[in-house]
Amino acid sequence: MSLSLKNASKKIAAAMAAFAAFSSSPVFADASFTPDAAATWVARSLLLARIAGDDGKSDSATIGANMAAACKGLQSEQISHEYGKAPQWAMGAQMNICYAYDRWSGKTFSSKRPCDDVQRAIKLMGSADPAKDPADVISAVNALLATAQNLLDATTDHKRACRF
User: Fold this and answer.
1) Residue 42 neighbours by CB under 8 Å, 6+ apart
2) 104 and 145 in one domain?
3) Taking a C-beta distance cutoff of 8 angstroms, is the pair 45, 94 a contact?
4) pLDDT attached to residue 58
5) pTM for this entry
6) Are residues 134 and 93 in the same domain?
7) 73 and 128 share a domain?
8) What is the Cα–Cα distance from 107 to 112, expressed in whole angstroms?
9) Domain match, 2 and 54 both
10) What would the pLDDT profile of 46-104 be if each residue is shown by its tens digit?
C-alpha cells in the first residue's frame, strides 16, 4: 500500500512540476505585443470596428454580412500570428466580439448571449495600457470600443437581440 502511495506522490509531484514549467511559458504569460502581432491585431480590430462601413450608415443586411466577414478566420489568425505574442486581453476581446457577431450574423453554433459577450469584450479592452501598448493598438481599441458601445446602445430596447 505504501509503495502505491509513494508512486502516486511521485506522479503528483511530476505533474505539478510539469504544470509549473508549462504555465510559466510565454503561451500562458500575459505577453506584450510584438510588432507583427500588433499589426495583425490592429488590422482585425479595425475590421471589427467598421461593420457599419466607413460612413457608419449601412443597412442591417450589410452590417450582418460585414460582421460575418470581419470574424472569418479569427481563430486561425490568432493561433498563427498572435498566440503568445499579444496580451490575452486583446485576443479575448476579439474572440468575444466575434462570438456576438457570429450570432447576430446568423451562425447557429455561436453565443446565446451576444450582449454579454460584447460587455466582456469591453471589460477586457479596459486592460489596454497607453503607457505600455503601441499607439496604433490604443487607437484600434478606441474604435472597437465605440462600435461595441453603439451595439449595446442599439440593443437596449430590443431584448431579443441579446438573448437567443
Assistant:
1) 136, 137, 139, 140
2) yes
3) yes
4) 84
5) 0.78
6) yes
7) yes
8) 11
9) no
10) 999 999 987 777 888 899 999 999 999 999 999 988 889 999 999 999 999 999 999 99
The string of DSSP letters for the chain reads -HHHHHHHHHHHHHHHHHHHHHHTSTTTS-PPPPHHHHHHHHHHHHHHHTTT-TTS---HHHHHHHHHHHHTTHHHHIIIIITTTS-HHHHHHHHHHHHHHHHHTT-SSS-S-HHHHHHHHHHHHTT--TTTS-HHHHHHHHHHHHHHHHHHHHHTT-GGGT--
Residue pair 112/103 in contact by the 8 Å Cβ criterion: yes
Q: Is the pLDDT of residue 124 over 50?
A: yes
Chain segment 9-26, per-residue pLDDT in tens: 455 544 444 433 333 334
Only one residue has cell 479575448, namely: 92
Specify whether 12 is located in the same domain as 53. no
Number of domains composing the chain? 2
Residues 87 and 111 both lie in one domain: yes
Range of the domain at 25: 1-30
Same domain, 24 and 71: no
Residues 6+ apart with CB under 8 A from 46: 140, 143, 144
Do residues 83 and 23 both lie within one domain? no
Looking at the chain, how many residues does it have?
164
Q: Distance between CA atoms of 12 and 75, rounded to whole angstroms?
A: 33
